[in-house]
Amino acid sequence: MSKITIIGAGQVGSTVAFALTLKQLASEIVLIDIAKDRAMGEAMDIRQGTPYIGPVYIHDGDYNDAKDSDIVVLTSGVARKPGQSRLDLAQTNVDITKTIIPQITKVAPNALYVVVANPVDILTYQLVKTSGIPANRIFGTGTMLDTARFRARIAETYKVAQENIHGYVFGEHGDSSFVPWSLANISSIPVDHYAGSYNGEKLAQFNKDDVEDYIRKSGGVIIAAKNCTNYAIGVTTAKLCEALNYDVDSVLTISSMLDGEYGISDVCLSIPVVVGKGGIKGKIEVPLLDSEIASLRHSADSLKEVIKQIKF
Hints:
single chain, alpha/beta, six-stranded parallel β-sheet, three-stranded antiparallel β-sheet, globular
């Protein structure tokens, strides 16, 4: 069992801690936050439920308590406000992360680093460029959440189990993300043909643009309704940490530094990546249509424009 440190005990960080505890993915979880009482209270609340879960020791602490962590999860940052884009947060959260990096890397130089805070692609890039940690041990949750939203939406449309929906969201975790529809299928049947292949009651049709719009705007809708998003990203982060615990590798759409894939370099965004114990094992350059490659490059260019304006 591993030791996981979570930096940031707000809605996202505490939900990640709860999800990790429920799945018993660590024997020790450390919560660190500048608001020490908040970290203490969240850790205590979760810890008091562990008799009904399993032997997970979760507690608050400071950076010294993160020593020998196997995984460090970064959730610290200013939350996105209603109507604000993830990229609007960029410089503010880059500055916050700038103060965290030297403190955590000093005590946990061998950890795997999972970036959750937004804008996740920019902060992942920052960590790769400035932390001194090898790039194969740094990744953001990227479009894992977008991919889950995609699968959930198609499952809702066709009233079929989410596990039967296969497909991904590529690119930025944000407005320039896109679905490579050429890869999307329901139990090996292309999504476009599923309704026509089903021998039963007539199935609803859907508009691809509406689905992609739903994916991009879901976070904003939830934030407007409850001022944060925490549950889906909590279990998404736990899923990534779970993959990092096992010798059997997983393919996930995490944000990582690209180095020539699809002709793209020096930017972090999401394509399918093979991850497991030790971090990134490799990237999968899946066959895409020319139009899909163009969309991926557009997403990369959008992020690079923001990077040019940021002081790291």
